[in-house]
Amino acid sequence: MAQNQSLSTQEVADILHVSKSTIYDLIRKGEIHSYKIGRKVRFTQEDVDAYIARSRHEHSTAPVQRIDTHSTLLTPAEEKAPEMIISGQDVVLDILANYLHQEDINAGRTYLSSFEGLLALYQGKVDAAACHLYDGKECNASFVRSLMPGVSAVLVNLSYRTQGFYVRKSNPKHITGWEDLRRADISILNRRVGSSSRILLDTQLKKLEIPSGQLKGYDKIMSSHLTMASAVAAGDADLAIGTERITHQLEGLDFIPLLEERFDLVLQKESLENPAVVKMLAILSSPVFRREVTHFSGNDYRDLGKIIMEV
């Protein structure tokens, strides 16, 4: 089946050899990602691959705990508090947490944006926060400095990936870059406040001195890169900002690359001597882990596990 094909609930059930009701239960529990086109639930092959990647490890380890960082209480199902909590929204982090479970380290996961994750790390609610924020000059470091004042931190690389514009197939509006946001005939889609795509957009608008109110669709908020890309492909808007790999999952879409972003895992420097963190860094640097995440994600992992900088 083509990588960019949209999968129905029945097709996913057939791939996993389970019933449709099981798939709906997995969606309800948040164990498999999906999106909606109208009232129909759809999946990408990456959603299925990610679920399989996480599930492959669960025969030998407990499932990853999902943690609500807005509450200090554990739910009844969380009988044992996690030894470490990893924040971020990439499937690589789910795979990492499962590898930690295999090493008898009880790792929890919370799915915060980069901005929210850094705040949670500063507040001591998480132990590691994935971050991909661009301030117009550099990735991540300036946000770590401003959101974690007085805290010494290290940035461990996870991957590099390309951010750009999603546009309809064949680019009918002939969009080429940021300057096209000045055009009155261009409509966009946006993400919620605090998301990396929203911060990137707002940074560029400020740099170009374009008032946000001038952009048609600026206040039309979408839940994910995938839902934005699907809407652009359907002709609901002319462009949206997101990562390149989404374009390999959908038909009717082209991509205009704008910049390479660095995706890092931020840790407080004092935690580097923590045995769980030592083990996590060893996993990130291992050839076995690199092979697995390369297969399921498709980003550039040339510096995976390396400490890129101290802030």
TrEMBL record:
A Pfam family per the record: PBP_like
Molecular function per GO: DNA binding
SUPFAM superfamilies per record: Periplasmic binding protein-like II, Putative DNA-binding domain
Protein name from the UniProt record: Helix-turn-helix transcriptional regulator
InterPro entries: DNA-bd_dom_put_sf (IPR009061), HTH_17 (IPR041657), PBP_domain (IPR024370), SinI_DNA-bd (IPR010093)
Helix-turn-helix domain ranges (all copies): 7-54
Residue ranges occupied by any PBP domain in the UniProt entry: 102-284
